[in-house]
């Protein structure tokens, strides 16, 4: 649905939110756009599941990556509170 050229068509400063199943977004194309500083991303699904630890999206402050889970646990609120303040969302 969102192939390699589609993230490049989004407006500067846009945030792409990906919570769909399957491979709706080209993860490498998204990483290039986020890495350039042009886009932000919030995703819990990637073409590569799980997203490899060495993938560039993990190091990009404009990318929020959460585990793809269908439920919350007692640890969800604490983990979210710990994670979110470290992000530099504009």
From TrEMBL:
Residues 1-70 form the D-isomer specific 2-hydroxyacid dehydrogenase NAD-binding domain. Keywords: NAD, Oxidoreductase. The keyword Cytoplasm does not apply. Pfam families: 2-Hacid_dh_C. The keyword Iron does not apply. InterPro entries: D-isomer_DH_NAD-bd, NAD(P)-bd_dom_sf. Signal peptide: none annotated. This is D-isomer specific 2-hydroxyacid dehydrogenase NAD-binding domain-containing protein.
């Amino acid at each position: 649905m969102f192939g390699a050229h589609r993230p490049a068509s989004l407006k500067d400063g846009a945030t792409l939110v990906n919570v769909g199943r399957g491979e709706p977004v080209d993860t490498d194309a998204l990483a290039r756009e986020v890495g350039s500083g042009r886009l932000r991303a919030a995703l819990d699904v990637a073409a590569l599941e799980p997203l490899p630890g060495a993938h560039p999206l993990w190091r990009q402050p404009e990318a929020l990556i959460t585990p793809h889970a269908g439920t919350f646990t007692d640890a969800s609120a604490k983990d979210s509170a710990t994670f979110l303040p470290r992000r530099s969302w504009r």
